[in-house]
């Protein structure tokens, strides 16, 4: 056997390597570095996503805006009720812009004097009891009741229409929220398809299909078929179907929805970047009815 200059035996692995083996070694090292680098990048991206927290994004006409999940849920209720009432998307834009200024679209239990809720409505001014005003569906309907009495509101500037309802001391402030409110209303009313996605942590509780169907009925006025951890809604139009589908994503933080399916598109709940969008169904034969929305619950 070969020996070293000191006379010790030389193992096969210690012997000089051929050029081919050296190239193979370099290649394997590069592959290993690449794999570790990719794993590290994906791990860092996942940790960054977790650190950033849950959020929702709406995109329409080339513009994207971000909402916290509770804000998106409230905006979805506001928009769904406008759809239920047969109002134009502009009505939802006005309502969302108003809620952005008044409460940051959060159902707050405080405000100036006795103001409460999404629109900071005051019990002392005839908007209802405190308990009623803190019900998002009730307060939203009261806002629309007042808005539709404003003659020509559909042709007014957003801020002007909002001020006609609110009579705020700073009525011009509503205008700053118009871009985000307009995009959000377009997406949640179904005018813009697949325009919302949310990154959400795993649902902490199991969803209640009957309760979700009741919420769909409350917000949209349509009935959903309750299945085994699913709620299925059949809409009358494409816009109507996408309104329900977008609502289901936006309200997933409340309902424990983990997947929403419509036609050949689906949204899956996760904290990954992919949950900001919708995934296409690769097999055309497995695509569903474009007017049918199925909400899957945890």
Q: Which assembly state applies to the chains in this document?
A: single chain
Indicate the low-confidence ranges by residue numbers.
1-17, 41-50
Proportion of residues in helical segments? 40-55%
Radius of gyration, in angstroms, nearest whole number:
27 Å
Q: Counting H and I runs of at least 4 residues, what is the number of helices?
A: 10
Please report which band the strand proportion falls in: under 5%, 5-15%, 15-25%, 25-35%, 35-45% or over 45%: 5-15%
Give the CA-based shape: globular
Summing up helix and strand content along with how strands pair, one would put the structural category as alpha+beta
> What is the typical, i.e. mean, pLDDT?
87
Tell me what you see in this structure:
The structure is a single chain. The chain has about 300 residues and is an alpha+beta fold. The chain has 3 domains: about 10-50; about 65-190; about 190-298, no CATH class. The protein has 10 helices and 9 strands. The strands form 2 sheets. The protein has a 6-stranded antiparallel β-sheet. Strands 2-1-3 form a 3-stranded antiparallel β-sheet. Strand 1 (about 55-60) and strand 2 (about 65) form a beta hairpin. The chain is globular, with a radius of gyration of 27 Å.
Highlighted features:
13% strand; single chain; 298 residues; six-stranded antiparallel β-sheet; disordered N terminus; alpha+beta
Short structural description:
Helices cover 44% and strands 13% of the residues. The protein has 298 residues and is of the alpha+beta class.
What topology emerges from the helices and strands here?
Blueprint (H helix, E strand, L loop, with lengths): L18 H34 L2 E6 L2 E5 L1 H16 L4 H15 L26 H4 L2 H12 L10 H9 L11 H11 L7 E4 L9 H12 L4 E2 L3 E5 L3 H13 L1 H4 L1 E6 L2 E4 L10 E2 L11 E6 L1
Antiparallel strand pairs: 1-2, 1-3, 4-5, 5-9, 6-7, 6-9, 7-8
Helix pairs in contact: 2-3, 2-5, 2-9, 3-6, 3-7
